Amino acid sequence: MQDPTALGQKAQGTIYLIPVELGPTPQQRVLPPYNRELILSIRHFIVEEIRSARRFLKRTDKDIDIDALTFYPMGKHADAALFEKYLRPLESGYDIGIISEAGCPAVADPGADVVAIAQRKGFRVVPLVGPSSMIMAVMASGLNGQSFAFNGYLPIDPSDRVRRIKQLETRAVQEHQTQLFIETPYRNQKFFDTLCQTLRPQTRLCIAAGITTDDEWIRTRTVSQWRHTTLPDLSKTPAIFLFGE
């Protein structure tokens, strides 16, 4: 295939999905040097939160010229109707980086909406290597890694939450499928208590907190064993909860 630039045409740009550290962890521990090389070549970024994205880029290279970069917000208060316009630099041959708050973009993240538009329009989408708390939690849990489902946040209403936990436990047993959840850190203890009160004693429950950080804490036990265990203080630590057979 002939290189379009040889014909005087501008090749389309590429969208790069740029992972971010999961916590206060040195980048060299979790992100390959290749990511840095690509980041420094990009001038357009679609980001979940502009302030934290700027901090991430400064951690990547303290000498980066932040003011020379263009940022497009995609967080919960952003106007989704603008997402398609954010991709216009690609048509002129400029690459775009997508950055979320932590972990891998477009996984349990608004970046998925932008990527969906890019795929419909035929742009090249490249995921970069980096930490995913969900995948790493499954890896370390000892639960089924052949079939698993991420369920995000469960209902806040206590009765609805208990009902949903029981439904998913049934699925875990019948389909041998590991179930994953997250909770706001200050509610971690209450969520843990609800799981221990609701799940069957023989169900295996894993808590994976502070993944990749110095405070990383990952344990898998039966619910019966957890009922006699005191958790460390996880009120400020992001955690993944998993259960299965």
Which descriptors would you attach to this protein?
single chain, about 240 residues, alpha/beta, Cobalt-precorrin-4 Transmethylase, domain 1, Methyltransferase, Cobalt-precorrin-4 Transmethylase, Domain 2, five-stranded parallel sheet, five-stranded mixed sheet, 10 helices, 10 strands, elongated, disordered N terminus
Give an account of the 3D structure.
- With 245 residues, the protein is an alpha/beta fold.
- The chain folds into 2 domains: 4-127, Cobalt-precorrin-4 Transmethylase, domain 1, CATH 3.40.1010.10; 133-244, Tetrapyrrole methylase, C-terminal domain (Methyltransferase, Cobalt-precorrin-4 Transmethylase, Domain 2).
- The protein is 33% helix and 19% strand.
- It is built from 10 helices and 10 strands.
- The strands form 2 sheets. The chain has a 5-stranded parallel beta sheet, with helices on both faces. A 5-stranded mixed beta sheet has the order 6-7-10-8-9.
- The longest helix has 18 residues, at 158-175.
- The protein is elongated and about 60 Å long.
